[in-house]
Amino acid sequence: MQDVVAWLKENGRLKIIDEPLDVELEIPHVAYIEVKMDDSRPILFTKPINRAKGIEYTMPVLMNIFANKELTEKIFGRHPDELAEGIDSLLKLKPPKGLKAKLAMLPKLYSLKNVFPKRLKGRGACQELIIPKAEVDLDSLPILKTWEEDGGAFITMGQVYTQSLDGEMQNLGMYRLQQYDKNRLGMHWQIHKDASHFFDQYQKAGKKMPVTVAIGGDPLYIWCGQAPMPHGMFEMLLYGYVRNSNAKLVKSITNDIYIPHDVDVVIEGFVDPELTEIEGPFGDHTGYYTLKEPFPVMDVESITMKKNPVFQATVVGKPPLEDKYMGWATERIFLPMLKPMAPDLIDYNMPENGVFHNLILAKMKTFYKGHAQQFMHAFWGVGQMSFVKHAIFVGEDAPELEESQALTRHILNRLDPKKILITQGIVDHLDHSSDEQFVGGKLGVDATGEEVNDSVQEALDDVTLLEKFQAIDSSIIELKQYFTDTKNPICVISVNKTKSVKDDIEKIYTLQKHIKVLIIVDKVNNDIEDAYMLVWRVVNNIDAGRDVMVEPFIIIDATSKSEVDGFTREWPKDTLCTKSVLDTLQAKGLIDIDEAFIRKFGLLDF
Ligand SMILES: Cc1cc2nc3c(=O)[nH]c(=O)nc-3n(C[C@H](O)[C@H](O)[C@H](O)COP(=O)(O)O)c2cc1C
Questions:
Q1: Contact predicate 24/153, CB 8 Å
Q2: Looking at CB atoms within 10 Å, which of 235, 434, 497, 578 has the fewest?
Q3: pTM over 0.85, yes/no
Q4: How many whole angstroms separate alpha carbon 414 and alpha carbon 425?
Q5: Whole-number Å distance between alpha carbons of 392 and 144
Q6: Which tens digits make up the pLDDT trace of 193-210?
Q7: Which residues of 26-42 are buried (b: 16+ CB within 10 A; e: fewer)?
Q8: CA-proximal residue: ligand 1, atom 23 (nearest)
Q9: What is the distance in A from the centroid of ligand 1 to the CA of 517?
Q10: CA–CA separation, 191 vs 177, rounded Å?
Q11: Is 480 helix (H, G, I), strand (E, B) or coil?
Q12: Residue 428 near ligand 1, beta carbon < 6 Å
């Protein structure tokens, strides 16, 4: 990380903040705001402190390493599309015919020699200092508390290395880790993740599970940790491929898990399969708090580190965040790996305001009726793609998937209720909208066909339409229509909700000739002029099976749910900054934001 810091000074316009700042809220707030800027930069906090605990840390905190696309590309050394092309050509390797073809294939095969991690003998640079169990104190690490209502401090860029019970499979996953006290960490590996599958094996065998958490080193390690590699494939293979250089691993001091030799901090320990502890709440990358839930706990056996370590961390919350750029690289690099199951897929895009698993846009060639539906089922059935709640498929004549305005127009001109598929499947562990945790509604839109003929029968301006709505229901406060030049304009209304939207929904049917698509959001904390955050809110809040109606026109109830809706789970709060912290940082000149910025990104209640 010291090398990374030096490299970022040269290549990444690193911001350095020497002012002492608290790991509780202050440092995270600065990083959170920075990454929302158009031209965001990585930041090194050289003097982290914890006022409540009276600690001045010896190691600096480095944040927003993946601060923008340009920097992300530099970290990879190549454009992610270029890496994807390489993977594509490897997946298409065919047995060569003839000597010439064999010789032509050699460089490709030769490059694969760098994919496999190498196990080094002896100690690594990450083991220059060894802190034995009796002296372990997690308080020596500048672990951040991001949000006021977080259940504590969390390691947010931990590389979690685990292995299967028989030692045959190794895994690297990026999971957050709650600090409980001086020597215990919560293991937030979600139910569908590889480390959780390994944990099940140890639990069945009644054996303690070794875990080693690494922090820092090459930034690609952490990117590999979040990459959705197929179960059983060690992420360090991907590292070797991207770097074109084998990952070099050393054995942990107190268990048999191998970790990169050059990470900054290593926390080794064992997880007791019989014990869990309440983890959370934690303001998550969905922009909502994840609620309290029991998770396994690691007892720390030893901490090792470099002589001058740098502590790497990230902030999650409402988009855009650092995971926008990590996710962009993932999306590009994994495109060729989706193609074997969906060969006519041209491209896909997971917009960051859809927090990745809540919205996917995909472009494909269609050759037969139902082709798009076939791909929807394929996506919902494979690996982490199966967490996707809403999938919209367009044909090859559609605009580029990142051209959001043109693409939305294209989709709305082809939106046909008969080609909307609503089904059920697994949802992300973090999803808060489904009636039952882990399973929920899926929505697939097939917009691959021709333009539809039907449009709004009698278009009205916003003011007139709002009056008509208010005559029906006085809890409707605001209205805005988007894309009125398309066959399916979107009408957004905000409500002061006191009862279920469904209670009187039939009354709204009388407006049928004026509306094609109606989206209902709460008045509180939603700005109906802010399409970016509306998309974030809507795809987060809906369970398609419950909240999307297609007759007599499309109605989407994106309000928060509660007992009035028959919703029995706890509905989580938005992640919000702490106003006093924003004020202090602004007064010190460490952030520079105005009311419009605060509202635009939903930093505070409004
Ligand atoms: C910033 C960030 C934080 C994450 N936190 C968690 C987490 O706490 N728990 C989890 O299961 N996945 C988390 N993930 C997602 C996993 O890293 C991702 O699903 C990864 O592919 C899991 O690896 P695995 O399939 O080897 O388990 C996070 C991802 C990012 C980018």
A1: yes
A2: 578
A3: yes
A4: 25
A5: 37
A6: 999 999 999 999 999 999
A7: bbbbbbbbbbbeeebbb
A8: 173
A9: 34
A10: 15
A11: strand
A12: no
